[in-house]
Write a structure and sequence with these properties.
Layout (H helix, E strand, L loop, with lengths): L2 H29 L11 H30 L14 H12 L8 H8 L2 H16 L10 H26 L12 H12 L8 H25 L8
Helix pairs in contact: 2-4, 2-5, 4-6, 5-6, 6-8
């Protein structure tokens, strides 16, 4: 094994050890009551925080999505014929053509799309509260199953509100049709009415339910394992 590989392996082990140490300290502080529980937020603040999670996601993900979309459109088998050799070259080309903000082109539609995080977390909380009411009845389900089902329904609530914005972000990069978000909305409505904004909703729902249900199940399971507060359960 080379010295570089050994050095990289040592750094990764040190990084993992640091995370484990931090989590252990957090668990100990939690067990000894050193972490103060904050009072529940009022409903408007909760909604704002849920949407804010989406905005934070958008700020980080949008530039990456822009680079990914441009690189995926390079279908030439000969790498020398491609416009971009990689993500760094792509980012430099965008900067030369459109400046610093070029990487955030279409960011308004992304913010609109990611604001649907509020619908997802609200839907999750609503269904968790509904399942809570089933306790003590013949329809009672286990907490992990409640997490799974509520996570899937929350994901569908997300896409029910997000699909129109997602449709507005779908355009040809090589031959774009839309001049902006408003023009895209008018064009989609003129061509397909309200249904046009929900094209492809069935496969989206079939994919979103199990993937997000599993993600929230794992999240809640880990949170319970560390003795931290769960959402509405």
């Amino acid at each position: 094994m080379s010295e570089a590989s050994t050095d990289t392996s040592s750094r990764l082990k040190g990084f993992a050890a640091g995370i484990a140490s931090g989590l252990t300290k957090l668990a100990r502080r939690r067990a000894h009551g050193c972490i103060t529980q904050l009072p529940p937020l009022p409903s408007p603040a909760r909604q704002l925080s849920r949407a804010g999670a989406g905005y934070t996601n958008a700020a980080v993900a949008h530039p990456i999505e822009t680079l990914k979309a441009k690189l995926q459109l390079q279908l030439q088998r000969d790498k020398s014929a491609r416009e971009f050799s990689g993500p760094i070259a792509c980012a430099k080309a965008i900067y030369r053509q459109n400046g610093v903000l070029g990487i955030y082109k279409g960011f308004g539609a992304t913010l609109l799309f990611r604001s649907s995080f509020a619908a997802m977390f609200s839907g999750y909380e609503i269904f968790m509260r509904l399942f809570k009411r089933l306790e003590g009845t013949r329809y009672e389900i286990s907490t992990p199953m409640a997490n799974f089902l509520a996570g899937g329904m929350g994901a569908n609530a997300f896409w029910a509100s997000a699909l129109p914005a997602d449709r507005l972000m779908t355009d040809s990069v090589t031959a774009p049709r839309y001049r902006g978000v408003i023009h895209a909305a008018r064009t989609v409505y003129a061509e397909g009415g309200l249904r046009g904004f929900y094209a492809g909703s069935v496969p989206v729902a079939l994919r979103a339910f199990p993937t997000n249900a599993a993600a929230l199940l794992v999240w809640e399971t880990v949170m319970r394992g560390w003795g931290t507060e769960t959402i509405a359960r």
